[in-house]
Design brief:
This protein is an alpha/beta fold. The protein has 8 helices and 13 strands. The two termini are 24 Å apart.
Length: 300
């Protein structure tokens, strides 16, 4: 069975003004997401599932889903604030979504095979999908044994300013032992560094693995996520801005010895539009890839 690509797109409506500004960066108006889906198809993925908000479904199906339907089976699931475990209700004043791992939970009735999770607005690169697709095809029937793509930190920086990155620690066998979110990671005088919680500047090696929210799971991950979400809500529901992120659940599984996560190395270079000033560079990078023959001019 081919793996599924699960695309986290619930933030699109607010971020892009109801999808009207879904940004075309490719030569024929392709979005970053178009390149991810193209790469996933050639990387061996057999189904596409989007998680979105219900209020922009009509727009999304017309502008996004219709593009892919003749190329790969597509399903849409929904992330809403009131989709909570039994016994919990939305706290008064809560407007912020519950976070990326809550979005992942929304796929539990649509995904029954190994699956990848990605952000809709990150350019991940062909090699990363090839590596992840190959790993996931071997994971049919596995439990408590997941993976993630570890990017070299030097391949993930913005030229326009500092970025936040999940710095990964691994053991000798290449399994994840922890992910620590670090803000303000940037290249200064040729060295990649960040300031830690003690105010000390820490220098990172060029190939230090970082998480760009590109994960590989099997369906048993949903049950773990549901359990940890209950714990999360008990502790954090009253904090109106708290979010249930994927690394929170993954770290919990690792530290409790419930699951292990293989870090897959990739030579792909990540890019996105973190800052408005990043846009011209992103357009140029895509143009260079098209000119080099890595992508056709028109994808779909």
């Amino acid at each position: 069975m081919k793996p599924t690509l699960f695309v986290l797109a619930a933030g699109m409506g607010s971020r892009y003004g109801g999808l009207k500004q879904l940004d075309g960066l490719g030569p024929y108006g392709e979005t970053i997401m178009d390149y991810s889906i193209y790469d996933a198809i050639r990387g061996g993925f057999g189904k596409l599932v989007f998680v979105i908000r219900k209020y922009f479904e009509k727009d999304f199906r017309a502008k996004i889903v219709s593009k892919y339907e003749n190329h790969i089976p597509v399903e849409v699931v929904y992330q809403e604030l009131d989709q909570l475990p039994a016994g919990f209700t939305v706290p008064e004043g809560r407007e912020k979504p519950w976070g990326t791992n809550h979005a992942v939970l929304m796929g539990r009735k649509a995904i029954f095979e190994p699956f990848a999770v990605i952000n809709a607005d990150d350019f991940y690169g062909q090699h990363s999908f090839a590596v992840l697709g190959k790993q996931l095809t071997q994971m049919e029937g596995w439990q408590n044994n997941y993976c993630m793509v570890g990017y070299h930190v030097g391949n993930t920086l913005s030229e326009s300013g500092a970025v936040a990155r999940g710095i990964c620690e691994t053991n000798a066998e290449g399994y994840l032992t922890g992910v620590v979110e670090r803000t303000a990671v940037e290249r200064i005088d040729g060295e990649i560094c960040f300031t830690d919680e003690h105010g000390q500047i820490v220098v990172l090696k060029e190939k230090t693995p970082v998480s760009m929210n590109m994960w590989g799971f099997t369906p048993d991950y949903f049950a773990h996520s549901e359990t940890f979400f209950v714990d999360f809500l008990r502790d954090n529901a009253s904090n109106l801005k708290s979010e249930y992120f994927i690394p929170l659940a993954v770290n919990e599984l690792i530290t409790k010895g419930i699951a292990k996560v293989k870090v897959l190395d990739t030579t792909s270079k990540w890019f996105g539009v973190t800052y408005a000033a990043d846009r011209p560079g992103a357009v140029e990078k895509i143009r260079t890839l098209v000119d080099a023959g890595e992508y056709p001019g028109k994808l779909f």
